[in-house]
Design a protein that fits this description.
about 290 residues; globular; twelve-stranded antiparallel β-sheet
């Protein structure tokens, strides 16, 4: 197991403080704010700790304040409902006495029913694409400092984009991308861990998609970019330590917000999850 994956598993292993109350920490990676996927993953862990015999099938999140990576995050779980088939939980993440994030999550008993799905896009296999090591060798020496720091750090999730143009040019591209993702090492067999890790990874690359049409990157100094809300629906079983294709598109950007969608497929074409997110994309002025 890579050290980055070990770190990810450790930050998802929340400390139980009291009934319905948990504490999470952030990795020491030098970020000025907590990565949104971390808060999503930790909140789902907190909710799952209060549920037995049911798997998370959907979650809906709002980011309200930037997270401070220097102090712990307290997760308070509200056990809203325990029904015959579904369980509902609400989680609030708190720092410095204020809510920074909230999530509603639903859990369901295992059931069978009607079954259909959209087809997976036809893309090259991950083995036919440059690895992260290859990408670093290709363009990091000429990349801006923030991009270089982002890619050089050991990370728990490997990304293999099908199209690299967004990373190496300012070309205005169609607002869609395809990225293979998986953890950089094996995970335990617990399905809850795989769901929480996917929740963590689902925040990666998604907001970038709304910038493609404008030849922009999230590292541009004149942009203020942040996740505003995030939703995920889990359709079928999967492993987050096996390759998943993240097919993303951005139907709209307006009013300083960009809307993005994603579908996650197993290699055999099985659709395992769907994601939607709206993010802040604000052009900075001298006064901001």
């Amino acid at each position: 197991m890579s050290s980055a994956v070990e770190t990810l598993i450790s930050i998802l292993d929340l400390e139980t403080l009291e009934h319905n109350l948990f504490r999470g920490r952030s990795p020491k990676v030098g970020w000025q704010r907590v990565f949104g996927g971390q808060v999503i993953g930790q909140a789902l862990v907190a909710a799952a700790r209060t549920v037995e015999g049911r798997a998370a099938h959907s979650l809906h999140c709002y980011f309200m304040r930037p997270g401070d990576p220097e102090v712990p995050i307290i997760y308070e779980v509200d056990r809203i409902r325990d029904g015959k088939s579904f369980t509902t939980r609400r989680v609030v993440a708190i720092q410095h006495g204020e809510a920074i994030f909230s999530m509603s999550a639903s859990f369901q008993i295992e059931e069978t029913g009607l079954d259909h799905q959209v087809e997976m896009p036809d893309v090259p296999a991950p083995e036919d694409l440059p690895s992260e090591a290859d990408l670093k060798a290709l363009f990091l020496k000429d990349a801006p400092e923030k991009v270089r720091v982002y890619w050089e750090r050991e990370r728990p999730i490997e990304l293999r984009p099908v199209d690299l143009r967004h990373y190496v040019s300012r070309e205005k591209l169609p607002p869609a991308q395809r990225v293979w993702i998986k953890t950089t090492g094996p995970l335990p067999d617990d399905p809850d861990i795989h769901r929480c890790v996917l929740a963590y990874a689902s925040d990666m690359t998604l907001l970038d998609t709304s910038l493609f049409a404008h030849g922009r990157m999230i590292f541009d100094k004149d942009l203020q970019v942040a996740s505003l809300d995030h939703s995920m629906w889990i359709h079928r079983p999967f492993r987050a330590d096996e390759w998943l294709l993240y097919a993303e598109d951005s139907p709209s950007a307006s009013c300083a917000r960009g809307f993005n969608r994603g579908s996650l497929f197993k290699r055999d074409g099985t659709l395992v999850a769907s994601v939607a997110q709206e993010g802040l994309i604000r052009l900075r002025t001298d006064e901001q």
